[in-house]
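Design request, tokens follow.
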């Protein structure tokens, strides 16, 4: 009996052993890193290409350069044999779920494993923004210490005590952030989700409306996925409703914030400082933003650790194994969870 065919899109950094084990029960086909979208779409329909035999696809964020977005065109081109797409990441905004759901193709992500490393990054950025650490660092690099005076002339920062943190998106990452922030002495934690959580998941946070979160928060912590409803959720109008001198921190997705509106607010002082790991059109970051001393940022490093990358890559393999052995992925994305056809899926072996 032939092995199930797994098409691997993107590089494996640390989970080679897991993939070697998988190759004992599956035929693993890595794609050529020079492949273009046009070539990929052609090979999906070419009976001479091994890609046309694929049953499970695994993908990484960087593999988008080979395939482009996983959109309706790509969904239509995929071989009839494809039953699942296993994505390596918590966010999956490069994938449009609807056309794949219509074709009864499951999509999985890697939700919980990113929580701790992303939360660590978030806290680093939050404290740095609150205390103006980047501002001082830049002045020191420019040789302004001691000539600039105390802290090389950086504006005096603020302590966490007495401040209200508003969490936009109290999911797994949001809760991990709260756990890390509690010892710093913040006055109160409030949150807004589309729906209120059960009390055991609120973790001591108070549920408020979006408008209340904007108006009450000294620090706004952004932890929501990017979709049509959340794109530019933090825009000029939303920022106008925030406290003067608010601090904004985003380790979710860049396009949740209207970047030009944020830059304008940073320049005016409406937003006192911002800590960002993600950007609207990354890897392109506006020079106008980079030049601002009240901006502290890193180049999408939220999960950039050996341990987290390895765990994520290994979990993708577990999702693949689950499809092979049970017919179902372990972590189907929320948009497809209620689809009845998933329950009818059959093992591949």
């Amino acid at each position: 009996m032939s092995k199930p065919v797994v098409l691997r899109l993107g590089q494996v950094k640390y989970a080679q052993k897991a993939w070697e084990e998988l190759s004992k029960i599956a035929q693993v086909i890595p794609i050529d890193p020079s492949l273009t979208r046009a070539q990929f779409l052609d090979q999906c329909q070419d009976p001479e290409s091994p890609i046309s035999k694929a049953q499970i696809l695994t993908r990484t964020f960087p593999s988008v350069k080979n395939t482009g977005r996983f959109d309706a065109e790509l969904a239509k081109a995929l071989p009839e044999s494809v039953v699942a797409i296993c994505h390596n990441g918590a966010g999956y905004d490069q994938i449009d779920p609807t056309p794949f759901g219509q074709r009864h193709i499951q999509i999985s992500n890697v939700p919980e494993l990113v929580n701790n490393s992303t939360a660590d990054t978030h806290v680093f950025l939050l404290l740095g923004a609150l205390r103006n650490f980047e501002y001082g660092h830049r002045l020191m690099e420019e040789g302004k210490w001691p000539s600039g005076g105390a802290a090389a002339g950086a504006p005096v920062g603020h302590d966490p005590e007495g401040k209200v943190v508003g969490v936009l998106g109290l999911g797994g990452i949001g809760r991990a952030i709260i756990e890390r922030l509690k010892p710093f002495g913040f006055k109160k934690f409030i949150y807004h989700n589309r729906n209120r959580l059960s009390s055991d998941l609120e973790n001591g946070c108070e549920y408020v409306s979006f408008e209340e979160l904007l108006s009450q928060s000294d620090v706004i912590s952004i932890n929501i996925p990017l979709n049509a409803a959340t794109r530019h959720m933090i825009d000029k109008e939303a920022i106008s409703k925030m406290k003067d001198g608010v601090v904004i921190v985003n380790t979710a997705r860049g396009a949740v914030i209207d970047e030009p509106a944020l830059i304008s607010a940073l320049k005016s002082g409406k937003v006192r400082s911002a800590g960002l790991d993600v950007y609207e059109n990354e890897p392109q970051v506006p020079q106008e933003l980079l030049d601002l001393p009240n901006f502290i940022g890193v180049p999408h490093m939220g999960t950039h650790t050996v341990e987290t990358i390895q765990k994520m890559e290994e979990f993708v393999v577990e999702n693949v194994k689950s499809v092979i052995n049970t017919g179902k992925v372990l972590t189907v994305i929320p948009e497809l969870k209620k689809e009845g056809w998933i329950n009818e899926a059959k093992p591949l072996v």
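Comment from the thread starter after seeing the answer: thanks! Residues 115-297 form a domain with the Rossmann fold fold (CATH 3.40.50.720).
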